Amino acid sequence: MKHWHIDQIDWASFDPRKVDPEIVPLVKAAAMVEKNGADYTLYLRGVFHDDPDFKAAADHWGVEEEQHGDTLGRWAELADPGWSFEEAFARYRAGYKVDVNADASIRGSRTGELIARCMVEIGTSSYYTAVGEATEEPVLKEICKLISADEYRHFKLFYDHMRRYLAREKLSFWQRLRVSAGRIGESEDDELAFAFHCGNEPESVPYSHDRCIAGYMGRAMGYYRFRHIERGMGMMFKSIGLTPRGRFADWAAKGAWQLLRWRAARYRRQIDAMPPLGQASPQGAAA
Ligand SMILES: [Fe+2]
Ligand SMILES: [Fe+2]
Predict the structure, then answer these.
(1) Residue pLDDT, tens place only, 194-251
(2) Sequence-ordered strand ranges (E) for the chain
(3) Which of 20, 156, 246, 280 gives 20 to 30 Å between its CA and that of 115?
(4) How far apart (Å, rounded) are the C-alpha atoms in residues 89 and 58?
């Protein structure tokens, strides 16, 4: 059962005057990645084909992720009445595919798969917390609160199953670290960048990964505060079996924060050199 329903949201209190125009393109992109959760459910069902408990949990998880997509998509349509979530999502689906027929994890083990899922949920939980705290628009604030609570529960769900598999598969610390670092690195792959393209650029503009990831990250990174990184780092440490609160976690959080600020500034300079969204140059030369 879902913890909340899209119709529970107080849509009537939407206030267009409080919409931050820099948040809208991010919400459009996130809506599509979330809505695509159904495909990941199929993938997880294949990887955990003989584990009925996990398959039931994955089904439930997928329904919640899809609802995140529908909710964010509906908000984006309110913020930009000329935008159609359905049309943008159809473009995304046509160009981005998840391997739904896998019968083994692309991470090399089930423990690895679950650690990778933990990393994704840590990222989304921190992200919606950051955006929810930054926005003044009351409906988006409410949505982000509901979604970030779901994402945190998802983290706990995958973490608990991961502990169960770890006892059986006995992945070493270094194997766990490698999977987690690998999945974090993938956050700048096509999944988000292509969603940003389909949500925000006309079809006449060819997709450019570099332009779109800068467009997404340059905006998104600006909403984080140190406390979000500190909390996320604690969750990452926990996922790979390290003490979540301690001097080492503290150093790692400070280092990650410096890196994020440096990269945010670099992406922001790229955005500032681009034409406004919707008018990106056909050659993607501004990337
Ligand atoms: Fe989600
Ligand atoms: Fe999630």
Answers:
(1) 999 999 999 999 999 999 999 999 999 999 999 999 999 999 999 999 988 889 999 9
(2) none
(3) 246
(4) 22
| Nearby residues for ligand 2 (ion, Cβ within 5 Å) | 121, 151, 154
Give the Cα separation of 271 and 273 in Å (integer): 5
For 100-131, the pLDDT digits (tens) are 777 778 888 999 999 999 999 999 999 999 99
Mapping DSSP to helix (H, G, I), strand (E, B) and coil, where does residue 34 land? helix
* Alpha carbon of 202 to ligand 1 centroid (Å): 26
What span, in angstroms and rounded, lies between the C-alpha atoms of 3 and 42? 22
**Measured between alpha carbons, how far is 264 from 224 in angstroms, rounded to an integer?**
10
The CA-to-CA distance between both ends of the chain, in Å, stands at: 44
Structure tokens of 140? 């988006």
Which tokens sit at 38? 């159904």
For residue 158, report the distance from its CA to the centre of ligand 2, in Å: 10
Q: How wide is the angle at C-alpha 196 spanned by C-alphas 286 and 204, nearest 5°?
A: 60
Give the Å distance between the CA of 150 and the centre of ligand 1.
7
Give 280 Cα–ligand 2 centroid separation in angstroms: 31
Query: Which residues, 6 or more positions from 86, have their beta carbon under 8 angstroms from its beta carbon?
Result: none
CA 85 to ligand 1 centroid distance, Å: 16
In Å, how far are 110, 134, 163, 191 from 208, measured between CA atoms?
33, 28, 39, 13
